[in-house]
């Protein structure tokens, strides 16, 4: 025998800004930012589209909100650590977070992002660099140089036309376009990849290390 309480509908979870942003983030992760619309979001939440505007002012406000949620996932630099280790951990964390949210990198670099998580993230980064001995001007240059590497590398990794397992085969298919008499060094590199002596894959931390080592020369120890 089924009790009345067993068949009763579950209580409706009230709509809130947090719930709207959570659903929007899931939708963007699953289908890309271009697929995010107020109509699709309302369908995912089981509400009417107009009710969303009680919690987000516009689609731009919605995107700003989910960008800030992504930034909030990035590990803040630990000021108890050596500055280079703290910056390395911050960069590695940012790269991993952006790979989890493939749409987010372009949204970050193409918008003015001033949400609380972004402000906290930038302020903590500047604070770590300032306390390590960088001038305010150099701290600003430093974190932007690191972020340019993070965003650029991430965009390339997300949009590279070949999977890592296909790289050697792809290199072989392009060999005819780089004859040794015209492009001797590129031809030599391609043969290294085809033969398996080098995988041809770029290393995120290699470029990051070059930036950090270069910044060390500009630092005035506290």
Strand content: under 5%
SSE order, one letter for each helix or strand: HHHHHHHHHHH
The largest β sheet comes out as:
none
What structural category arises from helix and sheet content?
Answer: mainly alpha
**Helical residues, percent:** 55-70%
Average of the residue pLDDT scores? 92
**How many β-strands, per DSSP?**
0
Characteristic terms for this protein:
mainly alpha; Arc Repressor Mutant, subunit A; 222 residues; Tetracycline Repressor, domain 2
What does this structure look like?
With 222 residues, the protein is mostly helical. The protein has 2 domains: 13-56, Homeodomain-like (Arc Repressor Mutant, subunit A, Orthogonal Bundle), CATH 1.10.10; 70-216, Tetracycline Repressor, domain 2 (Orthogonal Bundle), CATH 1.10.357. Helices cover 61% and strands 0% of the residues. It is built from 11 helices and no strands. The chain has helices at residues 4-7, 17-31, 38-45, 59-72, 83-100, 104-109, 116-131, 136-159, 167-173, 184-194, 204-216. Helix 2 packs across helix 4 (59-72) and helix 9 packs across helix 10 (184-194). The radius of gyration is 23 Å and the shape is flat. The model has no long low-confidence stretch (mean pLDDT 92).
Question: TL;DR?
Answer:
With 222 residues, this protein is mainly alpha-helical. The chain has helices at 4-7, 17-31, 38-45, 59-72, 83-100, 104-109, 116-131, 136-159, 167-173, 184-194, 204-216.
Describe the SSE topology.
Layout: H1 4-7, H2 17-31, H3 38-45, H4 59-72, H5 83-100, H6 104-109, H7 116-131, H8 136-159, H9 167-173, H10 184-194, H11 204-216
Helix pairs in contact: 2-4, 4-7, 5-8, 5-11, 7-8, 8-11, 9-10
